[in-house]
Design goal:
The strands form four sheets. A five-stranded mixed β-sheet has the order 5-4-6-10-7, sandwiched between helices. A two-stranded antiparallel sheet has the order 1-11. It is an alpha+beta fold. The protein has six helices and eleven strands.
């Protein structure tokens, strides 16, 4: 299921052999392996999405995009490493709202998620489900298997993967929306040419299970 959700991370040139490198003031990019920082352990949703994205970008650019897991501190360690890396396009981040939007309000961080990172693209949005696990991937096994009853999804519209589960608004609880999103980032001052190319190669769209 997470594979189906993560297929939102598709590339415009996915069927094309190595694309031309990006021309930057520092020279062609990428000319060596690129790190994809992930703030969670291997095997989780963020890690799987990052590895799928890395495979796609490797196929496009002809250089390895390698996932580097730095779990801990509410996913903020990987964000901190990225924020403090040179803005040369060789350290990128697949992050979630846990580190980028929630942690700054409850923890003292060594980086500013707005000022110290360059947003590249929104990758995937996964609806949270009331009375089940957070990730839609698990929902497929526990809810569709009939072992857990989902009361509602916390998104504006019903999730395509769970069409029989109402939204909170439909369940009589208006004004509450909460989803897990995964975004693609680089350090602050990432060259515009690299940012634009990565965005162009990453066909991102908001995903609520559709």
């Amino acid at each position: 299921m997470i594979r189906r959700v993560a297929l939102a991370v598709t590339l415009a040139a996915s069927g094309i052999a190595f694309a031309q490198p990006v021309s930057t003031p520092a020279g062609p990019w990428p000319s060596k392996p690129v790190r994809l920082m992930v703030g969670a352990s291997p095997g989780g949703g963020t890690d799987i999405i990052a590895r799928m994205l890395g495979d796609k970008l490797t196929a496009v650019f002809g250089q390895p995009f390698l996932v580097e897991n730095r779990p801990g501190a509410a996913n903020t360690i990987a964000s901190d490493v990225t924020a403090k890396s040179p803005p040369d396009g060789y350290t990128l981040l697949v992050g979630t709202n846990t580190a980028q939007a929630i942690a700054p309000h409850i923890m003292k961080l060594g980086f500013d998620p707005v000022k110290d990172l360059t947003p590249i693209a929104l990758l995937v949005v996964v609806p949270n489900v009331v009375s089940s696990t957070q990730h839609l991937a698990c929902a497929a096994f526990f809810i569709k298997g009939g072992k857990v009853k989902a009361l509602a999804v916390m998104t504006p519209r019903r999730a395509a993967e769970l069409p029989d589960v109402p939204t909170l608004v439909e369940a009589g609880v208006p004004g509450v929306e909460m989803s897990t999103w995964y975004g693609f980032f680089g350090p602050a001052n990432l060259p515009r040419e690299i940012t634009a190319r990565l965005y162009a190669e990453t066909a991102s769209r908001r995903q609520a299970g559709a």
